[in-house]
Amino acid sequence: MRMLPTIVKNLLSRPATRRYPFKDLREPFPGYRGRISFDPNKCDLCGDCARVCPSAAIEVSLEIGVNREKRQIRYDPFKCIYCGTCVETCLPQAISQDKHYTKPSAVKEVEIINVPL
Ligand code: SF4
Ligand code: SF4
Asked: CATH for 39-100+107-117, among 3.30.1390.10, 3.30.70.3270, 3.90.330.10, 3.30.70.930?
């Protein structure tokens, strides 16, 4: 019987969580560290972002072969902890972080960014 007030209170109160992403999306708070994006036109493939990333979410590939050249960044948003270290480290400012939430996804996809010559 001691639980009765708590049960009644919970029955009459609103849910404590939001049905994200379907409704009641709230604005990000100031300083929120959201999505990471790369500008391939600014990147010089130095690899600094991959070296400093604490969760190994970035791989930088620079392979020069006889018939092809692979200049690529692979970014795994599911490994990323959104710390912003890569953004602070990238000297050419090829990485940016906005204030938007990363959308949920049913598939764990790695983003591949091809860097032009
Ligand atoms: S994104 Fe920035 S830090 Fe990463 S490889 Fe390109 S230039 Fe270097
Ligand atoms: S925000 Fe942090 S965890 Fe995510 S890719 Fe950049 S350095 Fe790695």
From this structure: 3.30.70.3270
Q: Which atom of ligand 1 is nearest to the CA of 93?
A: 2
Say what the pTM is: 0.81
Cα separation values, 10 from 19, 32, 75, 94, 117, Å: 18, 31, 42, 49, 60
**Would you say the CB of residue 87 lies under 6 angstroms from ligand 1?**
no
What tens digit of pLDDT does each residue of 40-99 get?
999 999 999 999 999 999 999 988 776 667 899 999 999 999 999 999 999 999 999 998
